[in-house]
């Protein structure tokens, strides 16, 4: 049980992304200095750190209160938002997303990011491979959605029970 939240680790369904894999994902995303990038489900900052090194202006979104607080201390240059991604207000200006969000919020998060009026320019999301296949095969108005690199189970600690891949979203 987590003393901070009263929920078990299993309830959070959290699998830490390895730093080496996180760096690969950020490199493949092609982040340019000065870009506004959301790291949704930032955890302990595995993606946050390489995003900063790439020169991004990072907004780290984390629901778990203790992890959000650790992010604030570890990355003072980052805006940390302690929030549920489902209730997240997206930026009113162009932004990107590079994230490894909880698999359970995939559909809701994509609905939010791809909604009419969203200023999303691009997203690289580490998701369950089955969800990536499903969403990559659908037509999405205004966006190209494709399957990116596979992310093996060993890229996480503890390893999840399912395979992962990067869902690549680009505005047309």
Descriptive labels:
seven-stranded mixed beta sheet, disordered N terminus, 27% helix, Rossmann fold, 9 strands, alpha/beta, 6 helices
Summarize the structure.
With 172 residues, the protein is α/β, with parallel strands linked by helices.
How many domain modules?
Answer: 1
Proportion of residues in extended strands: 25-35%
Number of helices: 6
Helix/strand-derived category reads: alpha/beta
What does this structure look like?
The chain has a single domain (9-171), classed as Vaccinia Virus protein VP39 (Rossmann fold), CATH 3.40.50.150. It is 27% helix and 29% strand. It is built from 6 helices and 9 strands, in the order H-E-H-E-H-E-H-E-E-H-E-H-E-E-E. It has helices at 9-12, 19-29, 48-53, 65-74, 106-113, 129-136, and strands at 16-17, 36-40, 57-62, 79-82, 95-99, 120-128, 143-151, 156-157, 164-171. The strands form 2 sheets. Strands 4-3-2-5-6-9-7 form a 7-stranded mixed beta sheet. It has a two-stranded antiparallel sheet with strand order 1-8. Helix 5 (106-113) links the parallel strand 5 and strand 6.
């Amino acid at each position: 049980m987590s003393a901070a939240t009263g929920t078990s680790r299993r309830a959070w369904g959290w699998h830490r992304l390895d730093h080496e894999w996180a760096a690969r994902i950020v490199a493949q995303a092609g982040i340019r200095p000065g870009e506004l990038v959301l790291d949704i489900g930032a955890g302990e900052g595995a993606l946050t750190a390489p995003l900063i090194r790439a020169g991004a202006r990072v907004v780290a979104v984390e629901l778990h209160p203790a992890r959000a607080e650790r992010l604030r201390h570890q990355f003072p240059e980052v805006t940390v938002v302690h929030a549920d991604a489902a209730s997240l207000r997206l930026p009113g200006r162009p932004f990107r997303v590079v994230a490894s969000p909880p698999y359970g919020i995939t559909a809701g998060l994509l609905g939010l990011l791809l909604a009419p009026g969203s200023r999303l320019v691009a997203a690289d999301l580490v998701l369950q491979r089955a969800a990536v296949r499903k969403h990559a095969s659908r037509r999405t108005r205004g966006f190209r959605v494709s399957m990116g690199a596979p992310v093996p189970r060993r890229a996480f600690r503890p390893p999840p029970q399912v395979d992962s891949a990067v869902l690549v979203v680009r505005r047309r």
